[in-house]
Every structure is written in C-alpha cells, then in structure tokens.
Prior knowledge:
By secondary structure, the chain is α/β, with parallel strands linked by helices. The chain contains 13 helices and 18 strands. It has three domains: 5-66 and 205-279 and 415-457, 3-Layer(bba) Sandwich (FAD/NAD(P)-binding domain); 93-197, no CATH class; 281-405, no CATH class. Strands 1, 2, 9, 10, 11, 12 and 18 form a seven-stranded mixed sheet that branches. It is globular, with a radius of gyration of 22 Å. The two termini are 18 Å apart. Flavin-adenine dinucleotide is lined by residues 10-16, 33-36, 41-43, 56-61, 229-230, 259-260, 284, 286, 401, 405-406, 412, 433-434, 439-441, 444.
Amino acid sequence: MNNVYDTIIIGAGMSGLAAGIRLAMFDKKVLILEKHTIAGGLNSFYARKGRKLDVGLHAMTNFAKKGERGKPLTKLLKQLRIPYGELALNEQQGSKIIFPDTELSFSNDLNVFTDDVLEKFPEEKDGFMALLEDIRNFNEVSLDNPYESAKERVARMIGDENLREMIFCPLLIYGSAWEDDMDFSQFVIMFKSIFLEGFSRPEGGVRRVISLLMKKYKALGGEVRFRSGVNEIISENSVIKGVKLENGEVITASKVLSSIGYPETVSNLNEKIELDPKVGKLSFTETILCYNKKPKDFGVEDTIVFYNENQKYHYRRPSTLFDEKSAVVCLPNNFEIDDYEDGMIRLTFMANFDLWNDLSPEEYDLEKEKVLTASKDIVRKLYPQMDEEPNFVDIFTPTTIKKFTSHHGGTVYGSTDKSRDGRTPIKGLYIIGTDQGFLGIVGAMLSGISMANLHCLMEGSN
Ligand SMILES: Cc1cc2nc3c(=O)[nH]c(=O)nc-3n(C[C@H](O)[C@H](O)[C@H](O)COP(=O)(O)OP(=O)(O)OC[C@H]3O[C@@H](n4cnc5c(N)ncnc54)[C@H](O)[C@@H]3O)c2cc1C
C-alpha cells in the first residue's frame, strides 16, 4: 500500500505542532492526529463563566530579547520562521523562592539572583560561582549525555544544604520527572531557562502561541484532525507502517512521531517489544482564584513565588491527595503588561494521581474544597493584605489532566525513562516532546523541531 503521508504526528501539543510546521515547511505531506477537540495538549485553554483560562501557562521560560543570538527561544522562532514580535512577550516583574528562614529574589537579570545568593549565603560565593561556570560550560542538549544525579554534582560545589534546596526548588517543580532529584542535563536546561533567561508571558496567554502555530502549520499545507485518537500504532517486523484510529480507520505513513509519552506510545504498539518505560509519579492540582481587585492594588508585585514551609524541599508524589506544605504561586497580572480583567492567582500543589482516581464523585468534590481552603491559606500567609474573597474559583486535579491529555497517571513531566535521541525499537517511530526529554512550552517545541530535523529532514533519515 502506498503511504498517503510522509509523516503522521500523534498529538497537537506544543511539540507536535512545532514538528508539523518544520515538516510542512519542507514540503512533507504531514498529518497531525489529536484526540482532544482543540490543540495545545498540556498547555491548552478553556472557558468558564465567560472567563478565558489557560490550562498550564504560568509563564514561558527561556525569555530572550529580540535579536539575542544563540538562545533557545530565538533559535526556535528562527526554525519556525515566526517573527519575534508575534509572540508579544511581556517580561516578569520579579519572582521569589520562599523557605522558612530565607527568601531569594530573582528576575530576568541573573545579577539579581546572584547578588541575593551572595548576600544571604556569603560563605558560598566560590561554590556558587563554580556552579555558574559549570553550567555555562556544560552541553546540556547533547543527545548522548548519560544520567547524572544533579543533587550529587551540585553538592560537590555548594556545601550549604539550604541554598541547594532553594536552587533546586523551582527547577524541580518546573521540569523534573524524577522525584527529589533530576538529571544534570535537565538541571542545566532548567537553570538556564529560569535563572539565566527567565520568565515572560505572551499577551493573550497560551491562545496566542497556539493560534500562531496552527495558522503557520495550516498555511504551509499541514493537515490536522481533531477528535482523532490513535489507539494502535502499527508496525511489521519492527518497521512502522501507520496508525489505527479509535474509529477503526487505518492511516499509513513511513514515519510516525509520537508526542503522547513513551509509556503511552509503547502501550499502543501492535507488536510487543521488550521495553517498559515507567509511568512518572509527578502530578499536580491547579487552583485558579479570581478577584475584583488586582494584586498590585494591594501592593503585591511578585510574578511567581516558589513557596516551601518545610526545612527541606520535598519534591515527590505525596502520600496524601496533595501536599499543601509547598506550592507554586503565580500572579499572571504581574508581567509588564496586564491584559486580564480580573486579579488572578494560580496555585500548584504536588498531588497523588492514584488517590484522586480512587475517589467517588462526592469525595472528589469534598477534596477539591480542601484544595481551595489550602490555596486560600497560602495566599493569606503570603499576602495578608489581600483580604478580599475570590469572585471566581476553578480547580483541576491529576484526573482532569489524565482526562484531557491521556497521559498515564496524569503525569505532567512524563516518564523517568526518556528517549533522548527520540528512537524507539520500531524503525520509523520516534518520541517527541516531554518524553524525548525537553519540556515546558519552549522545550517541547524545540524537541518537536529537533526530532523532525534529525529523523525526517536530515540526509539519510529516510
Ligand atoms: C498545570 C500545568 C502547568 C504548566 N505550567 C507551565 C508553564 O508555566 N510554563 C511552561 O513552559 N510549561 C508549563 N507546563 C508544561 C507544558 O505544558 C508541557 O511541558 C508541554 O506543553 C508538553 O508538550 P508536549 O507536546 O510534549 O505534550 P502534550 O502537551 O501532552 O501533547 C500531547 C498531545 O497528544 C494528545 N494525545 C494523547 N493521546 C493521544 C492519542 N492516543 N491519539 C491522539 N492524540 C493523543 C493529547 O491530547 C495532547 O494534545 C504546565 C503543564 C501543566 C499541566
């Protein structure tokens, strides 16, 4: 049978859309198949009571100024041929890491963070400078870096455990599939993306990014089908042949790029393989609180706060439904330009998918109320002056994430078994996005681009 498509991409999240653009740009016949009714995946959007809400977006990491060379963001825009201005990025005002006895501030200027670290941990000056040097000299995007414990490597430079925990806190919760540690390559990616480059927000939120990507992809002749879940990935003698949709339709292609996750991809294979990538343990609840007044009306200027009440930072699946002892608190009004009508605070707690999944509908509603109470408690502790009750609340949980993205275990950062070069035991089937190892909005797009380039566009990739 002749293949109708050169490449099928499973999933219209950030990585799938970026890969699709790259392939369509080089005249490949490409089809994106998406199970959900809209694009965006883990970083999509929805509406509630007239409010437009982003699913995931707190901030885009990897901020770069227009024309800055060699930065992940500018590289990715160049590859996708999207003018910088179209993202309409607004920089953060300033963020914090708050632990019981110490607070560290940072912004998109590394000096703010460095000065605060040196003021609060003067004895760690040499160690912190050595860490910065190590990070700058490390090739974090090499596809054959073996796993190395970041906690162990950083401990060889920084002796103060409190400082180490504070540095790791944002990097883990914004990008680690591993509990309480991360691969050093991932540590460097996250350190650069948060402390060296920083946070920004596209005007209009994630809708702007998705509509830019969709418009570009379609203009290049790319095809996309929504409500088109793949339930079988077909291969013969370990060579990819195509996919079967939930409605039974078979579509053939010589390459398949899968963004649905490594375990999810393997579980859809018609041929059994000796590989069993683990389902990641990390999932989250997200609380969205809207207020009549804006945070700045109360004198609150933080953009993102990484809040932790324990002496150490516990980044792991909690043994309870959620862990209210630490949270990411995001104030999306506090970027350069505030395009929200309401004041808004978003709070992320680590959560246990299995426990949420076992609840009856009544218990589920009750537990969501507890998440709300815990969220309000944290807002009260951080900003006692914000004594106003929210006028709108929405909460989603690990089971919501599973429902809308089909990620096993409601994981956000995927499996701990990544495929750094995207290869699978099936020839012509490649992993892109989170389980290739690059995550977040910018990371996932870069993954889609680099895997499309490597496996579908480079000479000899056929
Ligand atoms: C609450 C939350 C907050 C976040 N905050 C931020 C943030 O502030 N900044 C940031 O940069 N990142 C953030 N992220 C992370 C970011 O959203 C992800 O890392 C990134 O979007 C992953 O993109 P992806 O393409 O790898 O995968 P996904 O987005 O998971 O895309 C996979 C797609 O495949 C589809 N799919 C699944 N199964 C099938 C199937 N069988 N057939 C067809 N389609 C299928 C899914 O519906 C989905 O659309 C957040 C995520 C969440 C959930």
